[in-house]
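Researcher: We're teaching a course module on how sequence relates to structure. For the next exercise, students receive a sequence and then see the predicted structure as tokens, so they can try to spot secondary structure elements on their own. Here is the exercise chain.
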Amino acid sequence: MGTTAFLMSIPTSLNLPPLPICAILDEIRFHLAKGSAVLAAPPGSGKTTVVPLALLEEPWLAGKSILILEPRRLATRAAAMRMAAILGEPVGQRVGYQIRFDRKISKHTRIEVVTEGILTRRLQQDAALEDVGLVIFDEFHERSLHADLALALCLDLCQLREDLRLLVMSATLDTEPIARLLGGAPVITAKGKMFAVTTEYIERPTRGPLAEVVCSAVSRLADLGGDMLVFLPGSREIRDTHQLLQEQPGLADRLILPLMSELSQKDQDRAILPDPQGRRRIILATAIAETSLTIEGVRTVVDSGWSRLPAFDPRSGLTRLQTVRVSKATADQRTGRAGRLGPGHCLRLWTREEQHSLPAFHPAEIINADLAPLALELALWGVSEPNVLLWLDPPRAGSFAQACALLRGLRAVDSRGRITPMGRKMAELPLHPRLAHMLLQGRSNGLEPLACDLAALLSERDPLRGRERGCDVRDRLHLLATWRKKGDRAVDQRGGDVAPLRRIDQTAAQLRHTPNQTGGWQPEDVGALLLAAYPERVARRRPRQRDRYLLACGRGVRLSATDPLCGEEYLIAAQVDSGHSEGRIFLAAPVELATVQSQAPHLLAREDLVCWDGENARVTAATRTTLGTIVVEERPLADVPQERITAALLDGIAQAGLEVLPWNGKVRQLQARLLNLRQWLPEEDWPDVSDQALAADYSWLMPYLGTMNRLEQLKGIDLCAVLLSRISWPEQQRLGSLAPESISVPSGSKIRIEYRIDEPPLLAVRLQEMFGLQQTPAVCNGRVPLLLHLLSPARRPIQVTTDLASFWHNGYPQVKKELKGRYPKHAWPDDPLEAAPLRGVPRRR
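Model: And here is the predicted structure for the students to work with:
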């Protein structure tokens, strides 16, 4: 079918404009007849709906199906409905779709639009995909984890099936890397956009709450024709903006609608389809509306400039949502929404200068995601090392290792990374491996209804509203039970949100083996089931704290100070972010230590420990029971060998540093004497007793610790004896002669020498005591002259010299002139070399 014939097959009643993609359909057919390809086409070009229909009767397809992968459920359903409408058929005939818990496919279906996870499940169940001839990866630039995994598996399958074609489509993708990954596949490019979109920037960076900034921008553009699409980072910002816009009198005639993934299908359709009453709409959307979705009537886009992306921390095993600036590629996608059906306008709430600093693309999800689902899928595929497959960005080694460790703890894989029977059962469930393990345990314990409700609740948006909603999971379960029994009104009165409750109920029903299965549960059952999903998130309350806890994985977390769960000794933190210095708990339930001991004894470790207690500055010897980093119980340990106590004390000294030892001036002088000899006599083997050398290995101190076990006992150590023990008795004698502690001066006084490291030794002596001495005193067999501080009678330095003879000749006459009048009782002879040295004031005769 040529381009003209294809366009003629479209019912004229739909009034579709000519689509840019039609100009390159023949080129697409030509390349796909030979193999896989990459298609780069701008937003609104028609690639999602036109290309699959145009390829349906290609000879190389041989009557097989086309699978189209979409990154979101809303786009999946909308694309299938659009193509079915073009063909004039209901969804489920030649065009069908399948998303989680919703499937409209029949024996006549040739084009299947599915979410990326559905393809992964289908590949695992039918590795050959014999009835599929083409797999289309739409909007691949979003680089979801499932899309990268599905592409890697399809490329692996292509090694066995040469007839299987892959078509990777995107509006903003850097096409060259993906073309290389596909073995040098051709890149087909569609030129031009559907309609022109004028792009406006603000003059100065925004300030103030985002909702207020967006509300002001929307009000300013309200007079532009058509509907308006506003991009916001998340549901909280949508709710805040929605409330502010409803208070604007100038927008009273507008229909203000949210568009988020957690909304019901009915509410999503209200935002996507034109209003039956013809009212103009303001649609407040998350990233769900960025791609693969035409919202009829939109002529104006307001882009807040923010995205919310998950970031996984493999060290803690926790994920936090980060609000970040949009990428240039994302901004272009959002702008394109305004030009789908006619000329449009886009207001970007950032400056032209800020535009230059935006990243080109957001990083692929595989870079920052929790890789546990991917690791389980690879194990089911028979792959324990991801590098055997082809990836655009391979999984990071640290994150993948953390994911494999989690799967081993959940008994999903063995020590060699091979999938276990438990892992196969977990992979069959449309849940994260944690929740799948919890659900299987609930089935085995007779708690399947509760486990299904918990899995659904933890997969969907929180049904409780308000800032003071508390973190107790059991409150949500009671709210769900109330809604099932009494309906929407009873839930509204309790501050609940009906929409997520409906989704939770639907998901739980799909997970249950037996329809309408019910069963009672006890409060402690909730913590027991959550333990199966989050074993490393057992949290114990910190001593003398009500709202701060320590997770078994080592992370500190906290509750709101007013949360009813405050004060519980043990919790299971089901939803918690990694935070910065401390994470925040969003959903949790109490758990008894006895439950952990009986249900997960492998999590507990018992060890006889002799270790340093830094808080109390002493060695602790105890039998300690731990749950990860949590100390569950500690009992004193008797009959501990002294060498273990001494080793622990040395650890404590190392942690505290050398300063805890009883240093004094005498010890420091001995240290300096030894270090000086080491420097002066490098040919001899004097020990290195510098602080750096001593702190590098404290074993030198061990023989002197005796039965000590506390820092305060170190005061009794004779450090001089310790340092002297580093040298032999003959060396100690040489130390006294080479670097004596003191020296005799001409007056007969014995004066202490001050030894310094990396400086000459110093001798401070009154000038009159040196009369008659011509040569400067020296140590180390006369090799090292002393630095003389010649003092006045008041013991103040009047001259610093290492050349005494020069001082007598040149400096002394001036000193005598200045000081003789000030100190007339002291001797100031004309010739100091001929004068007798004096200790004090000479007596008068």
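Model: If you want an answer key for the exercise: The first strand starts at residue 37 and ends at 40. Confidence is low (pLDDT under 50) at residues 1-17.
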